[in-house]
Specification:
Number of helices: 15
CATH topology of the largest domain: FAD/NAD(P)-binding domain
Strand content: 15-25%
Radius of gyration: 23 Å
CATH superfamily of the largest domain: FAD/NAD(P)-binding domain
Helix content: 25-40%
Largest sheet: 6 strands, antiparallel
Shape: globular
Oligomer: single chain
Length: 488
C-alpha cells in the first residue's frame, strides 16, 4: 500500500450524490483528513448483505445497477493503494478476481510471467455488490457524515464563488468545497447557470448507438463458472454484440447490445425470446449449458446512452470556483467499455492530489482538475465516441445492404484479422491490449505501439493462410425467426 499521510490543512467538503463517484471521492478525501458530508437523495436502508442489495435495494440514481459490470484494473490499482480494505471486503463477498494468468488465450504457448503482471488484475462482481461494499465502508469511515434522503436544490455562492449548497429541507450547508457527482442526470449545468457568471460551461454529446439487455444467473450447487478462455466470452455479429460476465457469490450475467432503433430485436426483452437467442451464440454455449444455472432476474434494459463531456474551465477561466464535478456529472462514456467507475476513481484520486498540492487556492484547484480531466479522462471519451460512430456506420450499412464507410470497414478488418489473431498468440500484444482495455495505459497507446502494429500487420497479411473465423451465431433474419418461433 502506498504511504499516504493526512493533509496539513483539512477542509470542510460537501459531496452531492452517493453513487460510485461520490463515494469514491468521499472515501479518499476523508482518508486525507478532510471533513466530508455526503448528500444522497435516495432514502433507503443499507441491506444486510450484497445478495439482499441485489434482490431489493432501490437505486433510483443508478438505472444501470442491475446491468453487467466489472471493476477494471485502473480502479483496482487506486483501491489497492488508497483503500485496500474495500478489495478485502469485495473478496469476502465472493467477487471474482481475474489475473492475467486466468485469461491468457488457450493458443498462447508462452505463458511465462512478465514484469507488471501484478497490475493486470480486474475484479468481476455485480454493480450493486460494489456499491454495497463502498457504502458500508464509507458510512463507517471517520470523517464522513452520510445524510440520506436529503436532496440538494441549488448552490450557495458569492457570485460564482461557491460556498455551500441549499438543501431541500430548507437549510443550507456551508462548505469550503462542493464536489458534485449525481450521475448522468446531475443538474449541475442548471445550478451553474443560476449563478449568472459571464463564463458558462460547455457540453457536447453523441448517441452511443446501442441499447443494452442483460440477465443475471446463479450457478446451481457444485457447478463452476464457465472458463473465459474456452471459447471466449463474447463477440459481435454486426447486428448484435454479446458477452458473458462473471459476478460474485456464484452469479454471472449475459449482456446483449443491439443498435438503437432496431425495434425487431427489442423482442429480446421477453425472457422466452432471450433464452432462445442466447442459446444460438456459439461462444456462450458454456454459459447456457443445461443444468448450469438458473436466471435470477428478468431481462433488464438500459437505453438512451450517450457519450458526453462537460468542460468547466473555458479559455483558462473556471466557470465557478469552490465547485468540482466528477464522474458522470462531468464525463460519460458508453457503458459497454466499462470505464465509468474507473473514470470516477481517476477523478477522485486527482481531486485528492489537487487538494494536497493547492489547498485553499480555489482557482488553482479548478485548473488542476481541468488538466486532470483533459489528460487522464478525456482521451477515453474521444476513443469511445470514435468507436461508437464507426460501429453505428457499420450497423447501418449491414442493415441497409449498402457499402460501408471505408475507414470504419478498414478498422474492423484490422481488428478482426490482424489485432485479434496477434493477441491470441503473442503474450506481449495480449498484455498491451489488456493494459489499454483496463485503462492502465492511454487509450491510444495500443494502436500507436510499433511492435503491436507490426505484429498485427503480419497477422493481417496472413489472413488467407488461416482457417475462416468460426461462426459466432446466426445471421439476423435467422435469429429473428428462431426467437419468434420460441415466443409463439
Amino acid at each position: 500500500m502506498t504511504e499516504h499521510r493526512p493533509v496539513d490543512d483539512p477542509q470542510r467538503i460537501g459531496v452531492v450524490g452517493g453513487g460510485m463517484a461520490g463515494m469514491l471521492a468521499a472515501l479518499l478525501l476523508a482518508r486525507d483528513g478532510h471533513d466530508v458530508t455526503v448528500f444522497e437523495r435516495d432514502d433507503t436502508d443499507l441491506p444486510a448483505t450484497a445478495d439482499e442489495a441485489f434482490e431489493g435495494w432501490k437505486r433510483r440514481g443508478a438505472p444501470h445497477a442491475r446491468q453487467s459490470h466489472a471493476l477494471l484494473a485502473r480502479l483496482r490499482r487506486t483501491l489497492q493503494e488508497r483503500a485496500p480494505d474495500v478489495l478485502d471486503m469485495l473478496a469476502d463477498q465472493g467477487a471474482t478476481e481475474l489475473t492475467i494468468e486466468r485469461i491468457l488465450p488457450p493458443d498462447m504457448d508462452d505463458r511465462a510471467p512478465r514484469p507488471g503482471d501484478d497490475e493486470l488484475v480486474l475484479w468481476c462482481c455485480r454493480r450493486l455488490t460494489i456499491e454495497w461494499v463502498l457504502r458500508t465502508v464509507v458510512a463507517d469511515e471517520p470523517g464522513v457524515t452520510w445524510r440520506r434522503g436529503v436532496g440538494v436544490e441549488r448552490l450557495v455562492a458569492d457570485g460564482t464563488d461557491v460556498r455551500g449548497v441549499a438543501l431541500d429541507d430548507g437549510t443550507e450547508f456551508e462548505a469550503d468545497l462542493v464536489v458534485v457527482g449525481g450521475g448522468r442526470n446531475s443538474p449541475i449545468m442548471d445550478w451553474i447557470a443560476d449563478l449568472g457568471g459571464d463564463v458558462r460551461p460547455t457540453e457536447e454529446q453523441s448517441d452511443a448507438g446501442i441499447v443494452y439487455l442483460s440477465r443475471f444467473y446463479r450457478l446451481r450447487d457444485g457447478r463452476p463458472l464457465p472458463l473465459l478462455t474456452e471459447q471466449g466470452a463474447g463477440g459481435d455479429l454486426g447486428y448484435l454484440a454479446f458477452a458473458g460476465f462473471y459476478g460474485d457469490n456464484g452469479t454471472f450475467s449475459i449482456t446483449l447490445g443491439i443498435p438503437t432503433g432496431d425495434r425487431e430485436l427489442m423482442m429480446l426483452r421477453d425472457p422466452v425470446a432471450w433464452e432462445a437467442a442466447v442459446r444460438t451464440l456459439t461462444p456462450l454455449r458454456p454459459w447456457t449449458a443445461d443444468g448450469l444455472a438458473d436466471p435470477i432476474t428478468d431481462v433488464e434494459t438500459m437505453a438512451r446512452l450517450t457519450n458526453r463531456i462537460r468542460r468547466f474551465v473555458i479559455d483558462g477561466e473556471p466557470v465557478a470556483t469552490g465547485l468540482i464535478a466528477i464522474g458522470d456529472a462531468a464525463i460519460t462514456t458508453n457503458p459497454w467499455y466499462g470505464k465509468g467507475c474507473s473514470q470516477a476513481g481517476i477523478a477522485a484520486e486527482a481531486l485528492s492530489d489537487a487538494l494536497r498540492e493547492h489547498g485553499r487556492d480555489r482557482h488553482a484547484l479548478a485548473l488542476a482538475m481541468d488538466e486532470a480531466m483533459r489528460t487522464e479522462i478525456e482521451p477515453h471519451y474521444v476513443v469511445s465516441c470514435i468507436q461508437d460512430a464507426d460501429r453505428t456506420k457499420l450497423h447501418v450499412a449491414d442493415r441497409e445492404g449498402t457499402q460501408p464507410d471505408a475507414s470504419a470497414a478498414a478498422g474492423r478488418e484490422f481488428v478482426l484479422h490482424g489485432l485479434l489473431p496477434a493477441m491470441r498468440t503473442d503474450p506481449d500484444v495480449f498484455r498491451k491490449f489488456f493494459r489499454s482495455f483496463n485503462m492502465l495505459d492511454r487509450p491510444d497507446a495500443l494502436l500507436t505501439d510499433p511492435d503491436v502494429l507490426a505484429k498485427a500487420g503480419t497477422a493481417l497479411a496472413a489472413k488467407e493462410e488461416r482457417p475462416p473465423l468460426p461462426r459466432l451465431g446466426p445471421v439476423r433474419d435467422e435469429l429473428l425467426a428462431i426467437v419468434s418461433s420460441a415466443s409463439n
